[in-house]
Amino acid sequence: MTSSSPYDPPAEPRPPRLDFDRPPAHPGTAPVRPGLRRMRRRRRRTVLLAVALLVAGAAAAGVTRLAGPDPSGRHPLAAADPSLANGAGAGSGTEPGGYPTAGPGSFAAADGRSPVRGDNGPLRRYRVEVEQDAGQDVDEFAATVDAVLGDPRSWIASGELRVQRVPEADAADFTIYLATPATSERMCAEGGLSTERYTSCRLPGRVVINLARWMEAVPDYGAPLEVYRTYVVNHEVGHEFGELHQACPGPGEPAPVMQQQTYGLDGCVANAWPYVDGVRYSGEPTDGV
């Protein structure tokens, strides 16, 4: 593992095209993210419990005024949930799955380099980094990424590109980050994307994998966690290789890897690979994002 360093946003403006798992538009209705309601309900219950505890404590002490900031300027709920101070959102706690919701924003990069995978085409070099204190081993994450991108069912099956992981930032064409929900949201927001700590995203030269999705996948995915992990790597790296979103071809068919499977399968079944039985598998283009 190389020495850790804080994440540095690019100094120069990036090209305008950005890619992330955006919910498809439905006229007249608000998009609903699977699992998001559950997250909001959990946060709401936490806040209501904190309020109840404060009210009970205030009643016991004979205090009647709870609304508004105290003389120090802190929100009255900050004592129960410090993340609510200064208007902050959800805090840097731990999800039921045991992973942190926020981290320091500094990353450690995997050492060494992988073999060159693929037979023909330009060589695309990538670097792998994991946020510190995320509870994930950077070398294990890098090994998973290497296995996905080097698989003959992945993008190298086109015969038009090769891939290799490198440890040097200057040598990498793009970097794949594994980041806590809060950090991934901040990184994606630098490109104008609002992920609500739920989705992963891709900006030019940066693939940001949300730790929550890496650890939990999505509700009703219908396949093991390893399948979702393979999908999210291939999907976001696919954007880096110029691929756009695609639609489900039909009920019961495999979902194209560029379908937004994080937001549901639309009748398709989970599929993590761009090539199926040696043939490029795809659906109709959707929103072009």
Helix content: 10-25%
- Major sheet characteristics: 8 strands, mixed
Q: What is the name of the CATH class of the domain at 102-240?
A: Alpha Beta
CATH architecture of the domain at 102-240: 3-Layer(aba) Sandwich
CATH topology of the domain at 102-240: Collagenase (Catalytic Domain)
Overall 3D geometry?
Answer: globular
The number of strands is 10
Q: How many angstroms does the end-to-end distance come to? A: 35 Å
Low-pLDDT parts are 13-17, 23-91
Domain DUF3152: 97-266
Biased composition (Basic and acidic residues): 14-24
Pfam families: DUF3152
Transmembrane segments: 47-67
Describe the structure.
The chain has 289 residues and is of the alpha/beta class. The chain has a domain at 102-240: 3-Layer(aba) Sandwich (Collagenase (Catalytic Domain)). Helices cover 24% and strands 13% of the residues. It has 5 helices and 10 strands. Strands 1, 2, 3, 4, 5, 6, 7 and 8 form an 8-stranded mixed β-sheet that branches. Strand 4, helix 2 and strand 5 form a beta-alpha-beta unit.
Task: Give short descriptive properties of this protein.
289 residues, single chain, Collagenase (Catalytic Domain), alpha/beta
